[in-house]
Write a structure and sequence with these properties.
The chain has one domain (22-96). Helix 1 packs antiparallel against helix 6. The protein has helices at 23-37, 43-51, 57-62, 67-75, 77-81, 85-96. The protein is mainly alpha-helical and 97 residues long. The longest helix is centred in the first third of the chain and has 15 residues, at 23-37. The chain contains six helices and no strands.
């Protein structure tokens, strides 16, 4: 081991630039970021509370959802109607991904 020289013994199995997280993890991060950036006093949060009564308010405010809940929201047309213009644009961009 010489300072300044590469000291890698073997090459990695997969190239790091070609290693992508699974789509489910991307959905989780997008949903969490969307909910954290949304207005906590808006109609969208009331809709989430009413639509998912078994999920605590703390989990909703922190954006902690499971995959079936995320898929349900992605297909729900009424949720889209409860968003303001900025949130609606953000929601549409995340759905396209």
């Amino acid at each position: 081991m010489t300072p300044g020289e590469n000291n890698v013994v073997s090459l990695p199995i997969a190239l790091p630039e070609k290693n992508f997280p699974p789509p489910f993890h991307i959905k989780l991060v997008l949903m969490k970021n969307f909910v954290k950036g949304a207005d906590k006093t808006g109609l969208d949060f009331d809709y989430l509370r009413n639509n998912f009564p078994n999920v605590s308010d703390v989990k909703i405010k922190d954006g902690i959802f499971i995959e079936p809940q995320i898929n349900e929201l992605l297909q729900d047309k009424q949720f889209y109607e409860h968003l303001n213009e900025t949130e609606r644009n953000s929601w549409l961009s995340s759905k396209r991904i």
